[in-house]
Design goal:
By secondary structure, this protein is α+β, with helices and mostly antiparallel strands. It contains two helices and eight strands; from the N terminus they run αβββαβββββ.
Amino acid sequence: MPTPARAPSAGREGFSLAEILIVLVIMSLLTAMALPRIQGMVQVSSIEGGLNGVATDLAVARMRAIRTARRVTTTISADGKSYTIVVDPAGTPTTLKTVAFSTNYPGLELTPHSAVISFDSRGMTSGTTSTLTASRGGHSATLTISGVGRIYRGY
């Protein structure tokens, strides 16, 4: 049996201007409350990303030292905004990689400035534990390189 067509509703359709404004005010308040937390997460994510890149490059430098049986050094710049990896700095130095944080991680800084982390042909450092700290916008994270060349991330 066919159903009769619906009669048009007698009321209005859609939203009133007052209803739309109330929804916009509520969304604005929620956004204003969430924005600082989101910015903090972006800062932490940037630090972790930069530190993961440094850890990866240090692992590559260590493996290069073992594979080539030559010393490989990683030198943090004087301002802490870049680092350079050099193979055999005492003999015939070859720059393996130079990384500037200004391109991928603006505002990120590594301390201590002018630090040198050197891996020998066995993949070991000078025997002391080195700690690098990456900081940006009041947040920081650490990277520890042990005397035997192990790399530990601390978030």
